[in-house]
Fold:
Amino acid sequence: MSGDTVNMYGGQDNKGIVHHHAAPPARSPEQAVRELLALLAELRAQVPAESARYIDSALPAITADPAVAPEERHRALLAVAGIAATVGAVGVPVVEAVRALLALLGA
Structure:
């Protein structure tokens, strides 16, 4: 269930709702990488063998390690996002995880 649930009992001139939303906990790039790698393992099992090989070749560059060249990491992230986008709904979590990781890395 999502959204607001409002119960009002009596009163008059009731106007508006006060929302108390907490900010989501900040994730580190390392956490985002771990989540993406788990999603990629699931996706890999559901794509054709050729796509699985492309995912495998991108994995070494998908890291928060500053030793990996940013352009290499970016290229790998776009490659797996492209594969995920072509498989439809099953790939949506990977595409979203890639977007989140790129935002955390400032790309």
Observations:
- The mean pLDDT is 87.
- The chain is about 55% helix and 0% strand.
- The longest helix spans residues 70-86.
- The two ends are 34 Å apart (CA to CA).
